[in-house]
Amino acid sequence: MSTLYAGYQDQIYRSGTAGRRPPFTTDHSRLERAARDVMAPQAYGYIAGAAGSEATMRANRAAFDHHGLVPRVLRDVSERDLSIELFGSRLPTPLLLAPVGALGLAHPDGEIAAARAAEETGVPLVLSTVSSHSIEEVAAAAPRARRWFQLYWPNDTELTLSLLERAVANRYEVLVVTLDAFALAWRPRDLDRGYLPFHRLHGLANYLTDPAFRHLLPKPAETDPAGAVQRWSELFNDASRTWASIPFLREHWHGPLVLKGICHPGDARAAVDSGADAIVVSNHGGRQIDGGVAALDALEAVVAAVGDRTTVLFDSGIRTGADTVKALALGARAVLLGRPYVYGLALGGTKGVIHVLRGLLAELDLTLAMTGHRTPAALDPSVLVRT
Ligand SMILES: Cc1cc2nc3c(=O)[nH]c(=O)nc-3n(C[C@H](O)[C@H](O)[C@H](O)COP(=O)(O)O)c2cc1C
Ligand SMILES: O=C(O)C(=O)c1ccccc1
Predict the structure, then answer these.
(1) Alpha-carbon distance 368 to 14, whole Å?
(2) Per residue in 71-106, pLDDT tens?
(3) Which has fewest Cβ within 10 Å: 16, 110, 289, 299?
(4) Which tens digits make up the pLDDT trace of 342-371?
(5) Which residues does the annotation say bind FMN (predicted)?
(6) Is the CB of 28 within 6 Å of ligand 1?
(7) 355 Cβ inside 6 Å of ligand 1
(8) What does the H/E/C string look like for 142-207?
């Protein structure tokens, strides 16, 4: 078996024979522990932590364990193609880098390092609104990376339009509007440290460089950083919005529009009716509601409701290639990788992210083959047994 993606395995074994180990661990739980050991405790707590007792985050993982993949044999899977069709173009793999705020907490190069890994692998980066490096800096550092922009929709029209203009001007192809974080959740790991990165000016690059935001400040951010943080927290989001608000974005964004953070079939129907081109089934990695439904379980209900009317993407709990196969089999077109790439970033910058992506894609390629498939599109729920 030799396709591009499974080739990473072969490369690791060949290097091993020559006396070299892989640059970082290939196991996701060891990766998390290794990252913890190199990160500041408050940064690790913010990234690894979740809402409340963190039951939702655990449920996300448990749901993958409750779905078993059934191996198939003798089906000629010698030639495989991981590419998928999305919004009329092809992506090399069914994987994206999820929007994660303040990547500067994990590595000084933050989103720039992640974008360079995106450039190297062809895996699109979804840049968070609350990034450590600005829309422009990321585009300039990785001009050939496929870039999407994630919007936390501010409660100010000028600022919203300015962010959208900047995303267009810097060739971000797709807009992902995150709907499930209109309130900051109860997160004990951060609360116990009194630590929110944004209050320490991490993750505000897009605001501090934005003319509309600066116009809304009583004093320049340089002389009054606390005032800038205060204004940011007032403008950050708007809990009064409804489905009737979405057409505004549809009107002002001319590319594909994706709504992220949907778990209820009724919300999925509303998203399709509002004009979205795709949705992301996600519970924000368990960071918003405690005691919540596992995202993978929500995926099944959402696909049943709207799978024939829209494109469904998925995140929350993806750690391995096998997890990815399960989500694709349940109807996701592609998955967004969250915490694991941030751990790779913490350990080795661009190289660390590339390692995590190549490892996951190699295992995805192998799992696809061993379940008897040559392409992601060939997967369906019959590959799974609920255990
Ligand atoms: C540290 C951290 C910051 C995040 N920041 C954002 C963000 O700025 N915008 C957003 O839409 N989602 C954000 N998310 C959620 C991710 O996009 C994604 O939904 C989540 O990480 C998936 O869960 P997983 O990492 O456990 O797989 C963040 C997640 C983490 C872990
Ligand atoms: O931490 C998060 O998950 C997140 O997306 C966020 C972003 C800005 C403010 C608060 C939370």
Answers:
(1) 23
(2) 999 999 999 999 999 999 999 999 999 999 999 999
(3) 16
(4) 999 999 999 999 999 999 999 999 999 999
(5) 99-101, 128, 150, 178, 282, 315-319, 338-339
(6) no
(7) no
(8) CCCCCEEEEECCCCCHHHHHHHHHHHHHCCCCCEEEECCCCCCCCCHHHHHHCCCHHHHCCCCHHH
Residue closest by Cα to atom 26 of ligand 1? 285
- Residue 56 Cβ inside 6 Å of ligand 1? The answer reads no
How would residue 58 be classed by pLDDT, with cut points 50, 70 and 90? Answer: very high
**Is residue 185 lining ligand 2, measured as CB closer than 6 Å?**
no
Query: What tokens appear for 91 in the block?
Result: 């992506």
Q: Which atom of ligand 2 is nearest to the CA of 99?
A: 5
Q: Which CATH class is domain 7-386?
A: alpha beta
Could you report the per-residue pLDDT of 183-203, keeping only the tens digit for each? 999 999 999 999 999 999 999
Q: Is 319 annotated as a binding residue?
A: yes
For residue 144, the CA-to-ligand 1 centroid distance in Å is 24
Angle at 241 between CA 239 and CA 243, to 5 degrees: 135
101 annotated as a binding-site residue: yes
Residue at 154: amino acid letter? P
Q: Cβ(101) to ligand 1 under 6 A? A: yes
Distance (angstroms) between ligand 2 centre and the Cα of 365 equals 32
Model confidence band, residue 312 (pLDDT cutoffs 50, 70, 90): very high
Whole-angstrom Cα distance, residue 314 to residue 281?
5
Domain coordinates in residue numbering, the chain: 7-386
Nearest CA among 281, 324, 274, 328 for reference residue 302: 281
**pLDDT attached to residue 342:** 99
CA–CA dist 308, 296 (Å, integer): 18
Task: Report which protein residue has its CA nearest ligand 1's atom 21.
Answer: 338
Instruction: Report the nearest-CA residue for atom 4 of ligand 2.
Output: 101
Instruction: Give the C-alpha separation, 349 to 73, whole Å.
Output: 39
Residue 257 β-bridge partners: 175
